[in-house]
Each structure stands twice: as C-alpha cells, then as structure tokens.
Fold this sequence. Notes:
By secondary structure, this protein is α+β, with helices and mostly antiparallel strands. The chain is built from six helices and five strands, in the order αβαββααααββ.
Amino acid sequence: xxxxxxxxxxxxxxxxxxxxxxxxxxxxxxxxxxxxxxxxxxxxxxxxxxxxxxxxxxxxxxxxxxxxxxxxxxxxxxxxxxxxxxxxxxxxxxxxxxxxxxxxxxxxxxxxxxxxxxxxxxxxxxxxxxxxxxxxxxxxxxxxxxxxxxxxxxxxxxxxxxxxxxxxxxxxxxxxxxxxxxxxxxxxxxxxxxxxxxxxxxxxxxxx
Length: 208
C-alpha cells in the first residue's frame, strides 16, 4: 500500500466515525494535505481551520461536518460513485492510488491549499509576541553588556534579534498578503473569527 493510500484510508476512517476530521502529517506537502481535505469535503465535511501546533511546529488541519442541506447529498453521491474509497479504490477528484488532483479538482484543491497556508501562517506568528521578543532580547543583552563590560561583543549581538525577527515578520506578512489576493480572486470572503483572527470563507465545496 502506498503512502498516499495510507493517508487516504486514515482520512476515510475519520469520515466514517467522527464529526471532526484532523489531518496532521509532519512531513507531508501542503498539496497533499489540501488533497486530503478535498476528499473529506466530498463526504460531507467542510474545511474549518489550520494551525501550526506543538514544539515540532506540525501543521494540523481541521474539518467539521458541513451543516449545509446539500452536504448529505454530496456525500451520498460520492459514496455511490466511489464504493471502494478507503479500501484501496478510487476517491473523488484524485488520480487512482494517488493524492494528485484530477484537472477538474485542481482549482478547488488550490483554494484549499491557499486557505490552509493563510490560516497556518496566521497561527504560527503572534505579531505582538514577535515584536516583544524582537526588543526584549536586545534589552537583556544590553544589560549584560553594562554588567560585564563586554560592549564589543554584546552590543553587536543586541542588534541582531530585531533585524532577524522583524524581517521574518515582514516575510510572513507578505506571504499572507499574496495568499489573500489569491483567495479574493477565488471568490472567498474576508472575515474575523471569534478570536479576532483574519480568515477567509470560501463558496460551497465541490459537488454541492
């Protein structure tokens, strides 16, 4: 059994038994995770969120049961069309035995991938914490310089954290801005969730 089939089978088991599907493969490409999310949505689920969690910064993608009245029909139609899904058979939108999208599914997988990346970038960086870190480290190093008298070593070091951390923050912001443009072009709507995070909501999933 291929790795792709193992991933598909794991998702299908969750689809059959749970109301929340969680996809987290530390070394999987985002395209792979987006394809798995596409498959779950074909069976009545809806993308909910993506977060980078844990010390290993693992990407976790969450889908919940779709309460749209068309979702059960979408799930039933796909269950009938792909009776061996999760048992080594074909699954909606993918080339047989792989997580490579078929041409007709690629646009939807691309939007899912962009949503996942947008949310993941947002969860990975707490802007206020980043700014605080960028200035707290230099202050500690400057205090050490005063205490130890090693200005030649510690003062140059104190200048590095703000440059590195704020530079990383700018890169993250630029990436999210690019993704926001892609999502807007795909018909997604900008919103703020209950935690105040900037999110995007997209139209009804495929096959609905």
